[in-house]
Structures are given as C-alpha cells and as structure tokens.
C-alpha cells in the first residue's frame, strides 16, 4: 500500500497543467486552461484544467479527476503505475512497505532504467533514419500496401546488414545499457578469454514497441526474405516483459475510444496493415499467448474487446488461451468476443480481398465469450450419451471456477445445464462455484443514505472544496451534527475525519482522490465543484463558522426543550440549565461579533 501521506505530498508537488499538457493542447482561458477533451470527440473545447483546484473537468462528457486520475484514464495505467510515473516526474521515490532495497540501490536501478530508455530511443531514431536509405526495405513495405505516413506513425525503421552498426550511434559501444536493453549481444568464448559484442538486429524491418507512456521499451524485427526466425523480438528486460505489453496500444488509444472497441490480433504486421486500411483500433500480443494482464490493460481502455484469430488450428489454440486469460477479468458490464477468419486469411489479407465493409461485418458477428466457452467444452463430445455430457462438464469446471460470481457466469451455467441435461443448481454444487448465484437467497439491497440537502449539503460541498476548513471543527460541532439525523451526522463526521487526517496539506484534489477510492457517493458533488469557479476560502470559512454556531444553537435548544423530562434531579436540571444558557449566550455573542461591520 502507498501511504496516503505520500499521495498527498505528490499531488501537492505536481502541476496538473503540466501533466495534462503533455497529452492535450491547452490554452489559457481566464483562470483555467481549455482544450479538446481526449475522452470523447468534440470540435470546440469543453475540457478545462484548473491550476488552483489541481483538477480537470469536461463539460461535454463529464470526465473529471486529479493528475493521477488523468493518467489512469488516458493511458490505461493502474493506480500504482500512475503514481510511480508522476513521482518520477518530480523526483520522488514511491515508498513500499515490502521494499527492502536500500535507497542507494534503488537510485542505481532508476539510473539504469533511464540509461536503457535513452539507448532504446537513440536506436529507434537510427533505425528510422536507415529505412529512408534502404530501397529493398521500402519496396517490401510498399509491397505490403503500407505508406510512408503509416510507417512514420508507428516509428518503423530498418536494421541494415553488418555486425556493429550501432557503434556509429553510441560512442561507448561497450556500455552496459546496450546489452541490458537487448540491443546488442555479448558472446564469450568457452574459456572466457575473448568477448565479442555485436548488434542483435540485422537486415530486418524494425517495429518499435512502446509502453503506455510512449517510451520505446523493445523492438520486433521482421526479415525481408524467407530467413528464420521470421520475427525476432527483444529479450525480456527490466523494461520489457512480453506478457505485460501489447504492440500498438500507445498508438491506438484514441482510435479505441472513437471506435468503442479494441481489436486484438496476432502480429505486428496485422496492426500496422489494419491501421492503413481504416482499423487503427487494433493491437497485438508480442509473440506470446494472451495473458490476464493483457486483458486487464485492454479493459482499462474500453468495455468491448474483440479477439481476432486465424481459423487454423494454431488460431484455435491461441483463442482458447485467450479465453482462459479473460475469465478472471469477466464482469457483467464488459463484453469480450472472438472473431475467426477463414483459414486462408489473416486480417490484412481478408480486408484487401473482401473489403473493409466485409471485415466490419465479421467484427459485428464475432462470437460472444459465453458462446465460445460452451462450444469449446461441448464440440468434441457426444451430448446424447451420459459419458459425453459428463466429459463436457469436466472440461467446463475449471473455466467456470475461474470466473467471479456474476450474471454472465449464471447465464453460462444455465446454458451448460441445458446442454448436459442438468439444472443450474446442480452445476454450481458439482463445480463448487464460489458464491453460487442460482441457489443463493440474496438479501435485499441495503438502502443507501438519503441524499444530503439544505445546510448539510452546503457544509459537505465547502468541506470537499476546502478540506483544511475541517481543522477548525471541534468535538462539540461533531456532536451537534446529530441534529441532522443519524445518517447525515455519520456522513458529516466521516468527511470531517477524512479531511482532518490530511492536515494542513489537504486540498480538493487530494480529498477527491480519497473519496473516489472509497466509492461513488461524492462523485456528483465533486463534478459540480470541478465545473464551477473556485469559491473564496475566507468567505467559506466565515460561512462554516456561522453554520456550526447555528447547529450548536439548535442542539442546545433541543436539549433545553427535553431537559425537564430527562429524569435528572432538580439540582442537576438547574445546573445544566445554567450551562446551556451560558453556552447559548456565548454563541450569540460570537455570531454578533462575526456579523459586525469591519
């Protein structure tokens, strides 16, 4: 867990205008900055960034959040990765309670990472320059129907023949970062007497692999002739793990949002060719099976994922592995489908032969995950025999166990039950599914707290906008909140405690990030505050103080009305009466002093 104090310090150090400005062209407009929203299509800017609130808000689609939230939504990163990226940008190191690495070693690792990133970018620039002077490589790409524009968009290049061309790029060809990043290979004789270094990539079309920040983390190289291997990838490095990255995701992010889905293909050339042919929302796994991490990354970008596989046996095997990777990530508000092309086609050849409209239809008709799963477990078995039905259930068991309890899992259970002459309850019991859906009696949903209104709502708004004002609230104010009723008092006390815990560094951005992690209760209020001009904190401080005095007066009045029926002795009643009236007089004087002209 990253300590909240670190998150607070980080959000107070970064400038959201700088963070958003790396990805969105912003122009000053009054107190805020304006730009075209990166989360939906628009022609006139409705996307605002507030340097005082350290918050962004789109009046068109309602997107809003802090610097952390922007990186999560824009790049598809997880919370921890977004925090680490922001921290690195301001020279902070994210603490980790399980991290036993000494600070000096951690700093060395960061320096190593920066050196590798720099080396890979320099190599990418070199390969791109070489492509312009390699007629054989240019002819190959033109023969595949690619233009110079699309090659430039993906940063494609060419590694020429020769064993040490990178020596002209790096004055220190012996640098450790070159071998650590996979750009060169060190070969040592068996007796260790002679070490020879040479370039890993030679005579290959080069596809740079970028992470979600756009940094080059590795390469894929394709031969021009029939040499082997056809594709050569960078080795696994601290920057590049094939099971975590997707080729083309950085380039496809906006197209995925525009299309409403992502198309997952099997190779580099599929991605580039589809972008050329009008399908820029395509990505590819990197010569490895689809993993659960791949699926997580994709579902951060869109609610609709379509896997495209060749119709041959290899494509079917790859589809089965993708299905297994998807199951732990399946939820009722996400859609995952599988597209199988005819055996003689890959996406590139299919579109060129049959046209974009035909491919669009194939995408539209792609098989839902539920249908594919049931087909996989039943296709090879005779469902007319008890043994065949039992075998189908046997194959389905681990797949269904991998899924979280959900409406979709229940639908698949019902489908399997129908095919195998069972009941859904029997399937769930036999498979020992966690939290059975078909047989569990669910308690009615607990009613949420009533929406805040009037004085309570205004207090909540001000405390969310200016959390430091909570530091001025004492225990007597928290007790007086009970005049609002139990639910409202509980909500106010929780918000005050959260705001007070942030201390003097509390801000709207920091508190909203905390509230967002806790649930959706404050989402609408945060969006309203983000969309309005920032309120005057001094005026709000005066209003809060007056409101608290009013609440305390109401609490004292209620107690006074009930005092004589409280069961206290006459002496106790008399003593408490004097205390209450004295407190009322004090509050009245404070209110009069606050309202007096200055």
UniProtKB/TrEMBL annotation:
Record carries keyword Iron: no
Alphabetized InterPro entries for the sequence: DNA_primase_core_N_sf, DNA_primase_DnaB-bd, DNA_primase_DnaG, DNA_primase_DnaG_DnaB-bd_dom, DNA_primase_Znf_CHC2, DnaG_bac, DNAG_N, DnaG_primase
EC number: 2.7.7.101
Alphabetical GO biological process terms: DNA replication, synthesis of primer
Reaction catalysed by this enzyme: ssDNA + n NTP = ssDNA/pppN(pN)n-1 hybrid + (n-1) diphosphate
Zinc-finger ranges (CHC2-type): 37-61
Cofactor annotation: Zn(2+)
Cofactor: how bound: Binds 1 zinc ion per monomer.
Alphabetized UniProt keyword annotations: DNA replication, DNA-binding, DNA-directed RNA polymerase, Magnesium, Metal-binding, Nucleotidyltransferase, Primosome, Transcription, Transferase, Zinc, Zinc-finger
Domain named Toprim: residues: 260-342
Single GO MF descriptor: DNA-directed RNA polymerase activity
Statement: the UniProt record of this protein carries the keyword DNA-binding: yes
Leading EC class: transferase
One CC-aspect GO term: primosome complex
UniProt free text on domains: Contains an N-terminal zinc-binding domain, a central core domain that contains the primase activity, and a C-terminal DnaB-binding domain.
Functional note: RNA polymerase that catalyzes the synthesis of short RNA molecules used as primers for DNA polymerase during DNA replication.
Subunit structure: Monomer. Interacts with DnaB.
UniProt family annotation: Belongs to the DnaG primase family.
Entries under PANTHER family matching the protein: DNA PRIMASE (PTHR30313)
Protein's recorded name: DNA primase
Organism (species): Massilia horti
Lineage of the species this protein comes from: Bacteria, Pseudomonadati, Pseudomonadota, Betaproteobacteria, Burkholderiales
